[in-house]
Design a protein that fits this description.
This protein is α/β, with parallel strands linked by helices and about 240 residues long. It is built from 8 helices and 12 strands. The protein has a 5-stranded parallel sheet with strand order 2-1-3-4-5, sandwiched between helices. Helix 2 packs parallel to helix 3 and helix 4 packs parallel to helix 8.
């Protein structure tokens, strides 16, 4: 059944496997998703800029340009949520995708139902509808605004992906509290299914870079060895 209008979302699906693209698109369309299929990596970025989708679903292995390269090119031009599609067991591709700016990943063969849930979750976060919460958070010089999906440090805007924004917000809402990787994964994605050990680590590393944190002596994001991460409640 097609969802209510406010639940409709638009996806650019970059996949060269014609059968998989057709079957997945058919499923998504029956659930109210507008799908634009692109079969080549070198054609993906123009289509994303033209369509301005809610989410990009991006395969890693593509002709013309690899999914990892496409991910980097999109991220240079847009903060649209990107969900990478990787082969089972290819952890290196997942890590590289996350480091290149992807927000999430699914592993082939994937469940169409789970894929739809992940796409909707990414769209909700990008639209600032991840759930009832304070509109504005401040932790020292760090300010996070849920209404505009923006963040700033010392008054300077931070350029964050939707995943990074959700991760930073989850930590800021619990500043001073240590959160395990599983807790962070659940807070950000709503699930710890299919999580792999390094995914949160990669996102935290990227977030640290954008906050200007020295990983050896971080001002904001503290690593609690063997446990997880904590946002300092009083960064100085």
């Amino acid at each position: 059944m097609v969802g209510e209008p406010h639940d409709l979302l638009t996806v650019v699906y970059v996949e060269d496997d014609e059968r998989l693209a057709r079957l997945t698109s058919q499923y998504l369309r029956t659930h109210g998703v507008e799908v634009h299929v692109v079969a080549r990596g070198d054609l993906a970025v123009p289509e994303v800029l033209r369509v301005r989708p809610d989410v990009v679903l991006l395969d890693v292995m593509l002709p013309g340009a690899s999914g990892l390269e496409v991910c980097r090119r999109i991220r240079e031009r847009s903060d649209v949520p990107i969900v990478m599609v990787t082969a089972r067991g290819e952890e290196a591709d997942r890590v590289m995708g996350l480091e290149g700016g992807a927000d999430d990943y699914v592993v082939k063969p994937f469940s169409s139902r789970e894929l739809l849930a992940r796409l909707r979750a990414q769209a909700r976060r990008a639209r600032g509808r991840a759930g009832p919460r304070a509109e504005r958070l401040q932790v020292g010089p760090l300010v996070i605004d849920a209404t505009t999906m923006s963040a700033s440090l010392d008054g300077v805007p931070l350029v964050l992906t939707t995943y990074e924004h959700a991760l930073l917000r989850a930590l800021a809402e619990r500043a001073g509290r240590v959160l395990t990787r599983d807790q962070l994964m659940e807070l950000v994605t709503g699930s710890i299914d299919d999580a792999f050990d390094r995914s949160i680590d990669v996102h935290v590393s990227r977030l640290r870079q954008k906050l200007g944190d020295d990983p050896r002596q971080p001002r904001f994001l503290k690593t609690i060895r063997g446990v997880g991460y904590m946002l300092s409640p009083d960064p100085r």
